[in-house]
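[job 0412] stage=complex_fold ligand=(2S)-amino(hydroxy)ethanoic acid status=START
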Amino acid sequence: MADTTGTPTAATPEPSASGLLADIADVGRDRTRGGYSRHVFDTAELDLREWFAGEARRRGLDVERDRNGNLWAWWGAPGPDAVVTGSHLDSVPGGGAFDGPLGVVSGLSAVDILRQRGVTPAKPLAVVVFGEEEGGRFGVPCLGSRLLTGSLPAERALRLRDPDGVTFAEAARRGGLEPEHIGADPGLVGRIGRFVELHVEQGRGLVDLGGPVAVGSTVIAHGRWRLTFAGQGNHAGATPMDDRRDPMLPAAETVAAVRRIAASAPATRATVGRLTPNPGGTNVIASTVDVWLDARGPDVPAVVRDVEAAARAAAEAEGCTVELREESWSDEVVFDPVLRDEVSAELGDAPALPTGAGHDAAVLSAHVPAAMLYVRNPTGVSHAPEEYAEDSDVDAGAQALATTLARLCR
Ligand code: HGY
Ligand code: MN
Ligand code: MN
Ligand code: MN
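[job 0412] stage=complex_fold status=DONE, emitting structure tokens
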């Protein structure tokens, strides 16, 4: 506990990082899919934001929301050369409990640990919550950090629509933002000296290495494309089979082609996890079908080219059309090697691991020195309810983050 000046008051010890995660374990549970569904500006995510702001204020941190809706909890006046940590609170549909929230609760817990160690940062320190990291509502990943850094133009973001057709501009206004002010915030980015994101590992690297914490080395190049197949909507029973232009057929053939094409590009991973027929009636031949492609790795351009060719051929054979649109792209990121090695050494030569997942830290790394810490995930599974981290590793991660922040805030 701390009084409003931020000095700790003798009281019951703050909950550990695993205790903070337990506090929010019931927020945004998805009763139909399992796991969690928490999307920007929806009830669950707004509840989590309110919880975060309350926890931060209880610790004497000054909480502010930037023009893009990202939350910043400051220990010390927001000034230049700040050390910032944090992650996101939103999830994929039916996602796990750790992807995102682990980095946020670890930031709060690291503040408690620094105080317990009697460390007062010599630099401003902030815990940040970025909005819409998963792109689960508006389709573009790391929306909050891309808007902050200007790597996504505001006018493009404002036009994005969620599955109900609500634009980001409308949702932002309902969420209390002023759409006309959304966009790059170079003044705020200019305050950041270093950024460190702690994240549950999405893979089994630490399981195989047998340790609780690693530092990040690289983030895979990755992008998202939307293929829209168009045919002729019609009645399922009144339309003879030889009188159809059913877009579901080329869509299905393209899903199979993605797997076949990716199999021939050893370092590339391509996935179709979302396919939406319109109108989506059981007794209706679809008029259009949207297929979203997620492709990652060094050979993505060739893989996307081959997928597009397969989609066009399949569409033509069924008398349909297909349109391919790039929704987002992120180049491969190599985290700052000097900062990486400094953090690794501070953590007793923690191993450095690559990741196949995108992160806000990767977006920030184009503008400020950024690092990542990973916490062991015994299942290696992520973006699914089986995502997991033992309490002991969660708390070891918060201790490692506190050690890292103490080093960087000297
Ligand atoms: O999709 C990703 O790689 C990240 O989890 N947003
Ligand atoms: Mn994720
Ligand atoms: Mn994440
Ligand atoms: Mn492959």
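Residues 262-263, 265-266, 268 surround manganese (II) ion (ligand 4) (CB under 6 Å).
[job 0412] exit 0
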